[in-house]
Every structure is written in C-alpha cells, then in structure tokens.
Amino acid sequence: MKSIYLVLTLGAALALASAQPARACTAASLDGKYAFKISGWQGSGAAAVPFAAVGVQTFDGRGGFTATNTTSFGGAVIRNFTFRGAYTVNADCTGSMTADFGNGVTATQDFVIVSEGKKIYGIAADQETAWSGTFRKM
C-alpha cells in the first residue's frame, strides 16, 4: 500500500512541476552589483598576451551597466579602470553585453544567467580573444 501512495505522491509532484511555467529572463534579471573575475588571452599566435581582470559591475535592470576593475594585460596592471556598456537578455537566460572602453574600443561577451540571477557565466565573443569569467551577485 505504501508503494501506491509513493507512486501517487511522485506523480502529483511531477504534474505540479510540469504545470509550472518556466521562469523567463529579462533585462531586469540583472540588477545590482556583481563581483567578477575573468581571465584568458587577447590577440592570436605569437602576439597573444595573457589577460585577467577583477572588479565590480553594476547592472541597472534596463540594459545598461557600469564597471570598475583592476586589469592585467600582458603583465601591465591598470587599477580603478572604469567603463560602461549595454546588455541584452533573452527569455532563455542567455544574452550578450558590450563594454565601451572609450576611443572606439569595445569588447563583447556572451553570457548565461544562472541561479535566478545570482550568477553569470561569460565568454568573450570577439575575434582574437579567448577569455571567460564568472560574475556573482554581491
């Protein structure tokens, strides 16, 4: 008899879970401050140099962001480097963001939002760039 109750309970739980609509992501899924770290390579072949950065990025929940970080580019360290940019979020919680560093220099990355917006995994989406990173909500 216990096995019948277990089957019925599991069946009811599965029915409820499948009846719940998937939570869609929007630009508002990213709102507030996120600590981030990224690392990888910039350039290609013999010209490739190691790249790493840590900092804080603040998303406005409407498609814009600002960030301040410390960057190591080929061993040259730049502290308190500030930039801004824009981001888009798809309903499936993937998206992209483009950082504007000024003087026409930009960088694009693709990302996926996980843990209900508490974490983001990103990867460079520009040619001759190979880096990835993680963002965690503060």
What does this structure look like?
The protein has a single domain, classed as Lipocalin, CATH 2.40.128. It is 13% helix and 59% strand. It is globular and about 45 Å long. Strand 4 and strand 5 form a beta hairpin.
List keywords for this structure.
8-stranded antiparallel barrel; disordered N terminus; mainly beta; 138 residues; Lipocalin
Short summary of the structure?
The chain is mainly β and 138 residues long.
Task: Provide the domain count.
Answer: 1
How many β-strand runs?
A: 8
Number of helices: 1
Distance between the termini: 49 Å
Task: Assign the CATH superfamily.
Answer: Quinohemoprotein amine dehydrogenase alpha subunit, domain 2
The unreliable regions are 2-20
Order of helices and strands: HEEEEEEEE
Sheet bearing the most strands, described?
A: 8 strands, antiparallel, barrel
Helix content: 10-25%
Tell me the overall shape. globular
Task: Walk me through the topology.
Blueprint: H1 2-19, E1 31-42, E2 49-60, E3 64-73, E4 76-89, E5 94-102, E6 105-114, E7 119-124, E8 129-137
Antiparallel strand pairs: 1-2, 1-8, 2-3, 3-4, 4-5, 5-6, 6-7, 7-8
